[in-house]
Amino acid sequence: MEHRAGRNFPYSGSLAASMRCFPMLVTVGVGLAVAWSAVASESAPAAIVAATELSAGITPSQPVAMATGPDGSMWFTERGPDGIGRIAPSGTVTQYRDGITRGAAPYAIAAGPDGNLWFTETGRGRVARITPSGKVTEFSAGITPGAGPDGIAAGPDGNLWFTEAGADLIGRITPSGAVTEFSAMEGASPRGIAAGPDGNLWFTDINSDRIGRITPAGAVTEFSTHVDSGWPDGPNGIAAGPDGNLWFTEYYSYRIGRITPSGKVTQFSAGITPGAGPDGIAAGPDGNLWFAERGLDRVARITPTGTVNEFRAGITPGAKPHGIAAGPDGNLWFAEFGVDRIGRIAAPSGPTLSVTKEGVGKGTVTSFRGGIACGTDCFGTFAAGTTVTLTATPVAGSTFTGWTGCTATRGKPNECKVSFSLRPAGQRATTSITATFASNRAYGKGRLLAPVLVFARPPAKRDKYPAWTYHVYFRTEGAFSKRRGDGSHDPGTMKLDDASGYPDEDFSIHGGGKPRGRCYDWFIAATRKDQPKITKKQIGDRVRVQLRLHATTPQARTVRLGAWPTRPSEWPSVRRAVRKIGCSA
Questions:
Q1: How high is the pLDDT of residue 339?
Q2: Which of 165, 355, 368, 558 has CA 20 to 30 A from 115's CA?
Q3: Model pTM?
Q4: Of 344, 426, 348, residue with least CA distance to 35
Q5: What is the chain's Cα-based Rg?
Q6: For the chain, what percentages of helix, strand and coil (3-state, to nearest 5) are there?
Q7: Which among 87, 85, 119 has a CA at the least distance from the CA of 104?
């Protein structure tokens, strides 16, 4: 058997890293203590979580996914050279090539109930098994040609379950290699998969914005994640959380989703930087979920209540973190597809403080004892028994309006104190504080500014009543409020006038909208009466949009619809255009 053993690579301190590529799944194990040296780092206060990277012994490999093995080692797939890597508790890196067919492109990996590791081979349409000693066996019988096995996870029935993104199927393979396939819904593209707390398997459907549930008997139910009419979501990685729910990444909409075993979906975007590209996700030892941000070379964590903190210290630019897994050493490990490294980040070992800013105003929150400068660093770890004083400072034109999660100091409304009680060793807790800033400007007042951005999404194939959806982005001089008005949650009303010779009564039109920073996103869904499909030509290439802000005079602008993005490949450029005119997408 051919394998390559790398030298021991000692390290110390807190760590983190990153990976890239496709959605991923992870598994947790027990007992790993490795010593490393930091490959890359950046100066930061002690309270900031930083990553450490391992490169020694890892040849150009394009690592994608990670899992904890039954031997206490961290295992990872190597997509480029068609291999599997192992990092032993001593820090020795070993790479295995024998038994893996050239072009296999190993992808996801998971620990099996038989004491071995199992991984998918997307390039050859196979599922493979590798023993702790490195012996590989590949299985193809029973797998539909072109199925493209993707995610993989151990099921509650003693088998391995995997997704087949190229064939709209979910596969099950026994430890002896017998495969059974089950149909997902038509048009599905299953990606990540994880065992749920309800005794079922849950998977993501990236093309149709759905989360699927499959019982051990093969019965499939799918739930839509598309609860608004914004961007496509692109559900990708998925993992069971400590709260009894499933958590998943949304690659296209830069969000994290949570779905209960009954199918209720909640989505979180606050704290996630646009362009993050959330990918792999895993439950951490600190009671939170950790995920890789492939688009921005970061690792982030989200609490069960939805508070997000992003970490980039120590991660090499271009790392493109992909899969992430909790290790037996109490840290998070992730594959850095872009730079051929493995990263590790330490979950905070003491009480942590997370600060969130809300409102249309601007300002900063700082801590007297250091560690919080929010601004940029809104997360810190402090010793048990510490009292931290927070101070909110608004910028010119804004006002601080209050705290949520702590009581303002008497006579000092801009200040509050957070006390961390003494806890048993190893017990961790997160305190979340919100500071709200208001703008001194009259909400919604101020003229419309150029440009006005208009684009549309085509009807989804699965829509019972297909409709084109316009999105009209208005940039304004002042920020919008989120107060109620005119029976809606909108800061005003908008009128759509057809300017191409087709009277409004020919269409069924409904709409709504939401403020996005210094911009307003109004959407209108239009369906042609007595006609199942409508074309851009029938709607026309010009619309007159009129936005009436509360307590202001109407302002109108005529705009051309122009080229409408209709393909997923065009959505990133639309997002950039939206951000360019001052909108928070």
A1: 94
A2: 165
A3: 0.61
A4: 344
A5: 25
A6: 5, 45, 50
A7: 119
Burial 231-261 (b: 16+ CB within 10 A, else e): bbbbbbbbbbbebebbbbbbbbbbbbbbbee
pLDDT tens across 371-395, in order? 688 876 677 777 667 788 999 999 8
Rounded to whole angstroms, the Cα distance separating 213 from 201 reads 6
Backbone angles phi, psi at 244, to 5 degrees: 85, 10
Q: What is the DSSP letter of 8?
A: P
Counting as low any pLDDT under 50, the low residues of the chain are 1-48, 229, 422-428, 442-451, 477-510, 528-545, 547-565
In the structure encoding, which two tokens stand for residue 64, read together?
């994608």
Nearest partner of 440 among 409, 489, 395, judged by Cα: 395
User: How many Å apart are CA 463 and CA 284, to the nearest integer?
Assistant: 38
Tokens 């990133």 belong to residue: 572
Residue with tokens 């104190």: 417
Structure tokens at 450: 């150029």
Please list the active-site residues: 322
What confidence score (pLDDT) does residue 106 get? 97
- Residue-level pLDDT at 108: 97
Distances (CA, A) of 540 to 470, 528, 535, 561: 12, 12, 9, 8
CA-angle at 67, arms to 246 and 113, nearest 5°: 80
Closest residue by Cα to residue 559 from 522, 514, 531: 522
| Residue-level pLDDT at 375 | 77
What is the pLDDT at residue 5?
41
Q: Give CA angle at 81 (79, 85), nearest 5°.
A: 70
Q: From CA 165, how far away is CA 204, in angstroms rounded?
A: 10
